[in-house]
Amino acid sequence: MYMMHGFGSFWSFIVMILFWVGLIGLGIFLISQFINGGNKKTSLNILKERLAKGEIDEAEYERLKSILKRDE
Q1: pLDDT tens-digit readout, 35-49
Q2: For the chain, what are the domain ranges?
């Protein structure tokens, strides 16, 4: 029976490690997206948050919202 020695086994080991690290990283990414609900920060959502926090008033909100709608 022939067994590989030298660089052949070294490179296959490196590829296996990279595969598992990539697979685990992808799993962590997908789980975090699932937990967060895939929420994306859109400019309109940020604007709503600023209004809710009191950083801007309603007039400023409407003005900025109309600018955002116009740019779409």
Answers
A1: 877 667 788 889 999
A2: 1-39, 40-72
